[in-house]
Design brief:
Strand content: 35-45%
Number of strands: 18
Strand order of the largest sheet: 8-9-10-11-12-16-15-14-13
Helix content: under 10%
Number of helices: 1
Shape: globular
Largest sheet: 9 strands, antiparallel
C-alpha cells in the first residue's frame, strides 16, 4: 500500500552546481515558513574519497550534508544544495538546537565529531564542530528540546551511551558530557533479555574529545555500562528509545527504553531478539504520529 516518488538522484546537479553526493544516510525534516520542508541529508563517505564543495573541513574526506527543499503542498522538489563538506562517514544525527546535528561514524585523525548545520543555508558554510559532544564513533543524537539535553549513541560493540547536559539555553553546546552507568561496576547490557530493568546514573567525563580513540575506554574504567552497538535513538513521551544493534541473547539486537531525570532513572530492555526472523539487528528508530515505534533492520 506504500507509494514513493523519486525527488533527486545521486550525481544529478543541485542548485549550487554541485552533484548530489552518493550514499545518503540519516535525515531530518525542518518546516521553514516561506521556504518549505527542508530535508537535511547525511552522506556516509570516508576519508580518502574527496568530495565536492568548499569550504571543506578536511579536503581528503568525502562525507558531508546536503539539503533538499520540498513543496509541502505538492511534495515536489524546489531546490537543493550542499551544507557541509569534508567530514567523514556522516551516518546519523538528529535535529537539535540551531539545526541539524550531523554525526561522524569515524575516528580517523581529526574526525569523530558532531557538526551543526543550518537548514536555512543555500550553500556550504564553514564547518561548526561541537567538541563538547565528544569525539568517538558517533551514530545518533537525540535532543530533548525542553531541557537541551542531547543523548548520543556509539556504534561500537564495546561502546557506551552518552548524555550532554548544556549550561543553559544561551549556550546550548557548552556543558558536560556524561556516560551512562549501572551499579558500581562497568555493567555489560549485551546479553540482557526482554523485560530486564535496572536503575542507572551518569558519570561526568573530563576529556570529551581525546586525540586518541579512547573515550569509551576511559568511561568504562570509571564504571560506564557497555551498550552493544548503539545506533538509532529517539525521544517520545518522556522516554529515550535506543537500538543496540548487536545486543541481546543471540547478538541480533535490543531496543532499550530509558526513563531519565537529572540524576538518572530506569533502563528497560523493551525488546531483545531470540529469533532473527522476527528481529534482526535494529538500526534506526523513530516514533510515528500514532505513537508506534518504527525501526529498520540492518541484519543479513
Amino acid at each position: 500500500g506504500f507509494t514513493y516518488r523519486i525527488l533527486e538522484r545521486s550525481g544529478a546537479r543541485m542548485d549550487d552546481g554541485l552533484p548530489v553526493p552518493i550514499r545518503p544516510d540519516g535525515m531530518a525534516c525542518f518546516d521553514l515558513p516561506g521556504e518549505g520542508w527542508v530535508l537535511t541529508r547525511n552522506h556516509e563517505l570516508p576519508v580518502g574519497v574527496p568530495g565536492p564543495g568548499r569550504p571543506a573541513y578536511d579536503p581528503a574526506a568525502g562525507g558531508g550534508v546536503s539539503r533538499l527543499v520540498i513543496d509541502p503542498d505538492t511534495l515536489t522538489r524546489r531546490s537543493s544544495n550542499l551544507l557541509l563538506a569534508g567530514t567523514a562517514m556522516n551516518c546519523s544525527g538528529g535535529a537539535g538546537a540551531g539545526g541539524w546535528l550531523s554525526c561522524e561514524e569515524a575516528v580517523d585523525p581529526g574526525h569523530g565529531f558532531v557538526f551543526l548545520c543550518d537548514p536555512t543555508a543555500d550553500g556550504a558554510r564553514e564547518p561548526v564542530r561541537l567538541d563538547a559532544l565528544g569525539r568517538f564513533r558517533h551514530e545518533a543524537a537525540a535532543t530533548d528540546l525542553d531541557t537541551g539535553v542531547v543523548y548520543l549513541t556509539e556504534d561500537r560493540p564495546d561502546g557506551c551511551l552518552y548524555r550532554f547536559v548544556p549550561e543553559g539555553p544561551s549556550a546550548p553546546y557548552a556543558g558536560r558530557l556524561q556516560a551512562l552507568a549501572i551499579g558500581g561496576t562497568s555493567a555489560d547490557t549485551g546479553a540482557w533479555a526482554r523485560g530486564r530493568r535496572a536503575e542507572h546514573h551518569w558519570i561526568d567525563l573530563e576529556r570529551p574529545a581525546p586525540e586518541e580513540d579512547v573515550l569509551r575506554l576511559e568511561a568504562r574504567s570509571r564504571g560506564a555500562a557497555v551498550i552493544r552497538r548503539g545506533e538509532g535513538a529517539c525521544l517520545a513521551d518522556g522516554a529515550l528509545y535506543v537500538c543496540a544493534t548487536s545486543g541481546g541473547p543471540i547478538g541480533a539486537g535490543q531496543i532499550l527504553r530509558l526513563e531519565d531525570g537529572p540524576d538518572g532513572g530506569e533502563l528497560e530492555v523493551l525488546a531483545a531478539s531470540t529469533d532473527r526472523a522476527e528481529l534482526d539487528m535494529p538500526d534506526n528508530v523513530a516514533i510515528s504520529p500514532g505513537g508506534l515505534l518504527v525501526f529498520v533492520e540492518d541484519g543479513p
